């Protein structure tokens, strides 16, 4: 039983090192995603309304096609 403990500690240390390396590698990507969302929030209201209207028209068009064909 005594030889099992050091192996577990090594596994935990290796997992922690791998996780911290992954976190450091992903930090620039997370920052870029956050900046992209901030840019999207800065769009004028009319642009947001335009995109919303486009989505509504697309969804309603699909609904009409499904309804016209009497279901899926």
Question: How would you characterize this protein structure?
Answer:
The protein is mainly α. The protein contains two helices and no strands. It has helices spanning about 5-40, 45-70. The radius of gyration is 25 Å and the shape is elongated. The protein starts with a helix and ends with a helix. The mean pLDDT is about 75.
By DSSP (H or I, 4+ residues per run), the number of helices equals 2
Number of DSSP strand runs: 0
Quote the average pLDDT.
77
Which residues form runs of ≥5 with pLDDT under 50? Answer: none
Q: Helix content range of the residues, please? A: over 70%
Structural class: mainly alpha
The whole-angstrom Rg is 25 Å
Largest sheet: none
- Could you give the distance between the termini? 62 Å
Q: Which percent range describes the beta-strand content?
A: under 5%
Helix/strand order? HH
Shape: elongated
What is the topology?
Elements: H1 4-41, H2 45-68
What's this model, at a glance?
The protein has 72 residues and is mostly helical. The chain has two helices and no strands.
Give structural attributes.
72 residues; single chain
């Amino acid at each position: 039983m005594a030889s099992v403990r050091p192996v577990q500690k090594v596994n935990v240390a290796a997992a922690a090192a791998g996780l911290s390396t992954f976190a450091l590698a992903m930090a620039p990507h997370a920052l870029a995603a956050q900046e992209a969302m901030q840019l999207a929030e800065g769009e004028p209201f009319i642009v947001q309304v335009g995109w919303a209207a486009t989505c509504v028209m697309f969804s309603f068009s699909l609904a009409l096609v499904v309804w016209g064909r009497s279901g899926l």
